[in-house]
Design goal:
Strand content: 15-25%
Distance between the termini: 28 Å
CATH architecture: Orthogonal Bundle
Radius of gyration: 17 Å
Largest sheet: 3 strands, antiparallel
Number of domains: 1
Number of helices: 4
Length: 107
């Protein structure tokens, strides 16, 4: 997959995990990895970018004697998911168009 396209998709995948509730890095990786490969070195810059854009907020909470950083989606982040879903409908139409035209005229 094209790097830029994958970057945008990963952003929305992370946001969709957080829409179910606050989570932390390791758990987010486990969830997102079910549909697309992601590593810690990829996730944390995404989370930082999403936080800078106002799509997520963070807070720290102690867990088993350690401080864990949690990420929580904002209303703006939910809007980003909805925007993606709207664009996806258009992308499906484009995909269908390309697929149909690439098969016509084949011998």
């Amino acid at each position: 997959m094209d790097t830029q396209r994958k970057k945008g998709v990963l952003d929305v995948c992370v946001l969709s995990v957080l829409k179910r509730g606050p989570s932390y890095g390791y758990m987010i990786i486990g969830e997102v990895s079910q549909c697309i490969a992601i590593s810690e070195s990829t996730l944390y810059p995404i989370l930082k970018r999403l936080e800078s854009a106002g799509f997520v907020t963070t807070y720290k909470q102690e867990y088993n004697g350690r401080t864990r950083k949690y990420y929580e989606i904002t209303e703006t982040g939910i809007g980003k998911i909805n925007e993606f879903l709207g664009e996806w409908e258009e992308m499906k139409q484009i995909y269908n168009f390309v697929e149909k035209n690439s098969q016509e005229g084949k011998s």
